[in-house]
Design goal:
Blueprint (H helix, E strand, L loop, with lengths): L26 H17 L2 H4 L2 H24 L2 H5 L6 H17 L5 H10 L1 H4 L12 H14 L12 H10 L8 H17 L3 H4 L4 H15 L22 H23 L7
Length: about 280
């Protein structure tokens, strides 16, 4: 019934991107990965979302993370906090776990459970409201958040880039599945399908121009407008790959492909800062 984390594309299966400079993962990093795995597995299946055993496991794990915060903060010196590449413990905990909760809330299977997870984490997240307790160089924080964003399978070009580190955390955590329409969820799902099943990842799309992706999106939109006969000369890919479905699905495919074109545009004109 439950899907293993390692089988899901775009989800980290090691602590490489989240660990501290030490070769041995810190206890809080292990807890975070357990939390991300648990949240992800709950999101995959409606039966999981209503199973009280999963709620109990979440309660126990989030309690352990919350209990670890005071000790972790006490162990860190100001020098450790501001050194290059060093994260404060509270920002690491809050950022990654909030991102995991955000990921769950975008799943249409159980948006309510995602809200409950966020509420369960409130104690651990309080440290983010006090900037003096979370000293972190802004540039380093942006890189850290970009890694978190990528770790949960989101496109880097969609990463919010305003309001500083703490503001970005709040933006990531503030998107609720209940605010998303069925149409928007279908577009997001189609974009993920394009990446996971067809291999239309960022690396693939970067071999195409923005114009080519925009033409593909336009062809799908014209298909929805019942203009199929006029489309083929404009299709930028192999003609055999041009397949149309019913009107609504054509609109979904047009929107998802337009999103791919916009992501390509953003990567071209607004690249992420180097991490080394």
């Amino acid at each position: 019934m439950y899907q293993a984390l390692a089988s899901r594309p775009g989800v980290p299966t090691s602590t490489a991107s989240l660990s501290t400079p030490s070769e041995v993962p810190q206890p809080e990093v292990v807890l975070l990965h357990q939390a991300i795995q648990l949240l992800w597995e709950v999101a995959q299946c409606k039966e999981n979302a209503v199973d009280p055993r999963w709620h109990a496991k979440l309660d126990e794990l989030m309690g352990r993370i919350g209990d670890s915060l005071p000790d972790l903060l006490a162990q860190q010196s100001e020098a450790e906090n501001v050194q290059k590449g060093g994260w404060t413990a509270n920002l690491t905990l809050a950022g990654v776990v909030k991102a995991a909760a955000w990921m769950l809330r975008t799943q249409d299977e159980s948006p309510g459970l995602g809200m409950r997870c966020a509420e369960m984490l409130s104690a651990a997240l309080q440290a983010d409201t006090d900037e003096e307790r979370a000293p972190l160089v802004e540039d380093e924080g942006v890189v850290t958040l970009a890694e978190i964003w990528a770790a949960i399978g989101r496109q880097p070009s969609m990463m919010p880039r305003k309001s500083g580190v703490l503001g970005m955390l709040r933006i990531i955590a503030g998107t609720s599945g209940q605010e998303m329409t069925a149409a928007l969820l279908d577009v997001i799902r189609e974009r993920r399908r394009q990446q996971d099943e067809e291999g239309f990842t960022s690396a693939h799309d970067d071999r195409l121009s923005v114009a080519e992706l925009a033409r593909a999106a336009g062809c799908y939109a014209m298909g929805a407008a019942d203009l199929i006969r006029t489309i083929r000369p404009f299709w930028p890919r192999d003609q055999a790959s041009l397949k149309f479905k019913h009107q609504r699905q054509n609109l979904v495919m047009a929107a998802a492909t337009s999103l791919a074109a916009l992501e390509r545009f953003d990567r071209l004109h607004n690249p992420l800062p180097a991490t080394d």
